[in-house]
Amino acid sequence: MAVPANLPLRAAGLPALLIAGLGLVTLPVSLFAPPGVETFWTEILVRIILVTGFYIFIGNSGVFAFGHVAFACVGGYAAAWLSMNPMFKQIMLTGLPHWVQTLQLSPWAGVAAAAVMAALVALVVGAAIVRLSDIAASIATFAFLVVVNRIYSNWDSVTGGVAPLTNIPQFGSIWPTFLFAALALLTAYLFQRSRWGLMLKASRDDDVAALATGISVYRMRLAAFVLSAAVMGAGGAVYTYFLGILTVDVFYMGLTFLMLVMLVVGGAESLTGVVAGVIAVSTVAQILRLAEQGVQIGGTRLALPLGLQEITLGIFMVLVLVYRSDGITRGRELPLPRFLKANADAR
Amino acid sequence: MRMDAKIEGAAAAAAGEALSVAGVTVRFDGLAAISGVTLRLAPGEIVGLIGPNGAGKTTLVNVLTGFQKPTEGGLEIDGRSALGWSPAKVRRAGVARSFQAGRLFGKLSVLENAQVAAIAAGLSLRDARARAAEVLDRTGLGGQLGQIAGSLPYTDQRRLDIARALASRPKYVLLDEPAAGMSDSECEDLMRIIRGLPGSFGCGVLLIEHNMHVVMSLSDRLHVLDGGRTIVTGTPAEVQADRAFLTAYLGAEGVE
Ligand SMILES: Nc1ncnc2c1ncn2[C@@H]1O[C@H](COP(=O)(O)OP(=O)(O)O)[C@@H](O)[C@H]1O
Ligand SMILES: [Mg+2]
């Protein structure tokens, strides 16, 4: 039987394949690569977590929620609150409850706690937002991002305001980040293949027919919203443990723009698109960043003007939208090698 | 097997099970789309709903499926009032529909379209898959399970819409012009499937169809609407003999 690429049957080996691919790059990077390259690749892995978070909601529901970086912010600060050196917390974050001030959790526990906290916030906010029509929901999530940024920028005694928080422990290796990226991909995959994922995708294609089919569109959307927020929260925490330092504006417009470019370029409706989009856009962005720094030739420094990075990425996204509106993967998943495919079909 | 389901349906009907509206009026901005319509559909029977364009047929289907709250009148499913229920709740109570304008889950496969309906009815992924495959087989789509629904030819899309409605094992199926735009032979194919629904699924069918010949031969009873009002109800023979029906509805077309 000829089975199209995005039939779940055939996609059974998909996360394994994506994760194995990422692992194959991570291994030599961890062993041989210079620190600059290792940082570049770690950042890609972090972005895969975050874009996967976006994808779980946007890709399955079809509702463009712009504000999900807010959940990464919530997760990032949760990580800092729980893991920062207690001495610094008692000086900088005087508004934190005493028991939090004295706590110093491992990054592992911090990521888990960040996911839970982001999910709880999403449950409350999402209960209102996913009731809205598509456009209104998009705008509301964006407004939510602004609100979260304003609160975290100004609540000095708890967040340190716009000042960076330092003395946050780091993982010290690329592997934990890889593991969380793998976990994010697996979560997204299991969700999109679940009963709930299928019902949500049906409502994405036609919400009236979904209601007529007995699907509670509201409940499916809320579930995806909460799950995607949990992944975003975990991603924000992983990012924080990767940097070892936290600034509120890291989780704002710039990151939102970058994530959306990655999602759109890769193709918002496939998990393969998430990985492809992150890698493609990160690479282009890295080249542009280097070009902005410039090269020294003789006595003169040749450099592209600052800001060109965003402009070029914007143009890149528009071009993809014009020529391949469903992204470079055309919304399809990776074709599986034959031996995996046979297994998948047998399920 | 076929007879069993039919007998089951008849038994359910005898037990007073039915989908019904009583004295239903729907007004849009003061204009009545339907006025004082009373209709009853029991499991196991086929009722033809006919009337010219704009007669209010789709509006009535919308009322029966919870998509349109009537301005006046009642809606009952098996003796329980279903007024104000959401479409999803009405569906879970056993009332399924197809749409006049396709409305498939375009990016899902043929199999998934039917599977998701069975899932929404509470089945596990695996059971829903089996149920969907079975229903698709019976509606003649068994060979296209993996195809993306949006890429199906038009007539197959209409059949998939019906298969999706059947996949939740509804007690009542409302089909809104399922054969619209089909050629005569395609239409006959489809009608053979529809004729078999009460027998194989035990459900009641409300069929909206413009082809007089087809609807007369298929229906146990007919309900004729014009300008939002019921002008006549009864067996096909009774309706064909009715004066009001002949002048109001077939006057322009003549009897075939
Ligand atoms: N949502 C709506 N708003 C306003 N008028 C409507 C709406 N839906 C249907 N109507 C009107 O109600 C009447 C009946 O329409 P409809 O039920 O679609 O007829 P049919 O299906 O028999 O062709 C028409 O005059 C139509 O214009
Ligand atoms: Mg109509």
Which class do the helix and strand fractions of chain B yield? alpha/beta
Give the uncertain stretches of chain A in residue-range form.
1-11, 342-347
The helix tally of chain A amounts to 16
CATH topology type of the domain at 1-94 and 172-178 and 221-256 in chain B: Rossmann fold
Strand order of the largest sheet of chain A: 1-2
Structural account:
- The complex is a heterodimer of chains A (347) and B (256).
- Chain A is an all-alpha fold.
- In chain A, strand 1 and strand 2 form a beta hairpin.
- Chain A has helices at residues 14-32, 35-61, 69-83, 86-92, 98-101, 107-129, 134-154, 156-159, 175-193, 195-205, 207-212, 217-243, 253-266, 271-293, 308-323, 338-346; strands at 295-297, 300-302.
- Chain A has a two-stranded antiparallel ribbon.
- Chain A is globular and about 60 Å long.
- Chain B is an alpha/beta fold and 256 residues long.
- Chain B has a domain at 1-94 and 172-178 and 221-256: Rossmann fold (3-Layer(aba) Sandwich), CATH 3.40.50.
- In chain B, the strands form two sheets. A six-stranded mixed sheet of chain B has the order 6-7-8-3-9-10, sandwiched between helices. Chain B has a four-stranded antiparallel sheet with strand order 2-1-4-5, covered by helices on one side.
- The radius of gyration of chain B is 18 Å and the shape is globular.
- The termini of chain B are far apart.
- Classes of the chains: A mainly alpha (347), B alpha/beta (256).
- The interface between A and B is medium-sized, with 29 and 35 residues.
- Adenosine-5'-diphosphate (ADP) binds next to helix 2 of chain B.
